[in-house]
């Protein structure tokens, strides 16, 4: 765990630490207290695992632990149990980005709204989940329903491509994004899971730009921001202005990248004709120059 903390930024799950810190007694209702406790035990037990491993574990724990609650009509549930179900589904979705977990959130949120129990935190979580699931129109509609609370404004999605591996192209200005196909299945490519808010990513870029050998090896690199609950378009726009040779795009859906186990930043995936050949993880204080050069040589870069 120390290695991961030292070399990586785990941007993917911003906000989950605060959620998981809620005492169970503040969430538990008449029947779901023990289920919530067991669900959060899995959350603690899986710390330090890869993105894919933790997503699977949290999905299974939620789907199994809350199966009976999910089968019920939300209108029949005690309000505290309803809130517990919503918050548990929110945590599961933040790890999995699965449509079923989004739907569980939406069903519970709808009933909370019908009872006048929506608070700023539950609104923000619902909006963030819609953003991560790329349901931008629904996120925008939610903003209009609750104008009293500020959140990141949902972007406008331009004409979309849904073929193969795709990303949201970051506009030079404004908030209109386009889902564009990515040409990473031909020849040698490097996909760098990265983000400007991660200082390890920034350090890696600085080292690459300052080193002719690294610059050559990384010439065909794709800098890919992970699926997150915020787009941070202005921050990405600034990165793209500062690094025009390595502009960053935003992953549309993790499921399009089944070979990528980790979405911590930075992670360097070296591909040959779309197949994963090697991985270089993190950016320690001494850098990863030799590892990157060896991995690049393996794919002919």
Automatic annotation (TrEMBL):
Protein name (database record): Thioredoxin domain-containing protein
Keywords noted in UniProt: Signal
Species of the source: Pseudoxanthomonas mexicana
Endpoints of the signal sequence: 1-28
């Amino acid at each position: 765990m120390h290695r991961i903390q030292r070399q990586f930024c785990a941007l993917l799950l911003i906000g989950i630490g605060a959620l998981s810190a809620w005492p169970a007694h503040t969430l538990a209702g008449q029947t779901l207290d023990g289920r919530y406790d067991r669900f959060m035990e899995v959350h603690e037990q899986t710390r330090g695992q890869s993105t894919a491993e933790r997503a699977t574990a949290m999905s299974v724990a939620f789907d199994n632990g809350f199966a009976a609650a999910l089968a019920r009509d939300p209108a029949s549930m005690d309000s505290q149990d309803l809130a517990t179900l919503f918050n548990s589904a929110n945590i599961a979705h933040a790890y999995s980005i699965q449509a079923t977990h989004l739907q569980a959130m939406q069903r519970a949120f709808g009933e909370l709204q019908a009872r006048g129990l929506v608070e700023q935190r539950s609104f923000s979580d619902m909006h963030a989940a819609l953003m991560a699931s790329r349901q931008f129109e629904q996120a925008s509609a939610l903003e209009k329903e609750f104008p009293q609370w500020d959140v990141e404004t949902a972007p406008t999605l331009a004409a979309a491509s849904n073929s193969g591996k795709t990303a949201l192209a970051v506009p030079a200005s404004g908030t209109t994004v386009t889902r564009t196909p990515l040409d990473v299945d031909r020849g040698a490519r490097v996909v760098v899971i990265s983000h400007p808010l991660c200082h390890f990513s920034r350090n890696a870029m600085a080292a690459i730009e300052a080193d002719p050998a690294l610059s050559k090896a990384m010439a065909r690199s794709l800098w890919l921001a992970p699926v997150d609950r915020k787009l941070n378009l202005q921050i990405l726009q600034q990165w793209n202005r500062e690094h025009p040779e390595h502009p960053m795009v935003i992953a549309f859906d993790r499921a399009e990248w089944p070979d990528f186990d980790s979405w911590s930043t930075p992670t360097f995936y070296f591909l040959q004709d779309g197949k994963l050949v090697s991985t270089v993880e993190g950016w320690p204080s001494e850098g990863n120059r030799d590892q990157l050069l060896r991995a690049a040589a393996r794919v002919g870069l």
